[in-house]
Amino acid sequence: MSAEPAIVCRHFFDALEARDGERIRSLIAPDAVLSRNGGPEVPLAILSNRKILASMERSMGRHRYEDVRQIVQGHRVAEQHRIRSTAPDGTEIDADVCVVVTVDDGGLIARVDEYSDLHLPSSSESAHDLR
Which domains are present in the chain? Predict the structure, then answer.
């Protein structure tokens, strides 16, 4: 493995927090997938799309990841963190999230499984935003 999974994982979430689509793309494998709460898999690259990043900002404001805790086992990182933000309508967002990130042998993220009760656009909403 060319990169430590915990470091790759943190760089990924730092890039999401910064809404840096180019950096997100540089950290993920071309066929990487995302699954939220055990739902259908969608291409992880969807999170690097400018329209999706803008949609995230419109719905949740500028979020930040806090209270980050990680457990690393081989190619996988189990990370718990809190997402905190103030949405544009003034709603306070404070949600616990657990993600399992799988990093491939080349040091790229191959899969993200996210578990939370935070409402983010579903895969169908995200696909619609890409049109």
Answer: 5-117 (3.10.450.50)
Alpha-carbon distance of 109 to 105, in angstroms, equals 9
> Is 90 exposed, middle or buried (CB count within 10 Å of its CB: 0-12, 13-18, 19+)?
exposed
Residue in the block written with tokens 């999706």: 52
Question: Running along the chain, 131 residues long, what does each successive block of 10 average in pLDDT?
Answer: 85 94 96 95 92 86 94 97 91 93 97 85 40 32
Q: What does DSSP assign to residue 45?
A: G
3-state secondary structure of 129: helix
Distance from C-alpha of 56 to C-alpha of 58, rounded to nearest angstrom: 5
Nearest to 96 by CA among 107, 83, 85, 109: 83
pLDDT at 82: 95
